[in-house]
């Protein structure tokens, strides 16, 4: 994935998160949870994009019967 694509994606995610935090009224704890979830998702996505962690699709979940 090209570096410009990564940077544009990070900017778009940041602007969207800022818009949600600024213009959608919610409780402070919900905003904090939303921010933490978005940051964790972006960090995992970046680690996967740079090859630090493998593909997350390789994890096998056993079937429950």
Give a quick precis of the structure.
This protein is mainly alpha-helical. It has helices at 3-23, 28-49. The protein is flat.
Number of strands: 0
Shape summary: flat
Beta-strand level of the residues, as a percent range? under 5%
State the helical fraction.
Answer: 55-70%
Helices and strands, in order, run as: HH
Domains (count) = 1
Number of helices: 2
**Mean pLDDT across every amino acid position:** 87
Structural class: mainly alpha
What structural keywords apply?
65 residues, mainly alpha
What's the SSE blueprint?
Layout: H1 3-23, H2 28-49
Helix pairs in contact: 1-2
Polypeptide structure, described:
The radius of gyration is 16 Å and the shape is flat. Helix 1 runs antiparallel to helix 2. The relative contact order is 0.10. The chain is mostly helical. The mean pLDDT is 87. It has one domain. The chain is built from two helices and no strands.
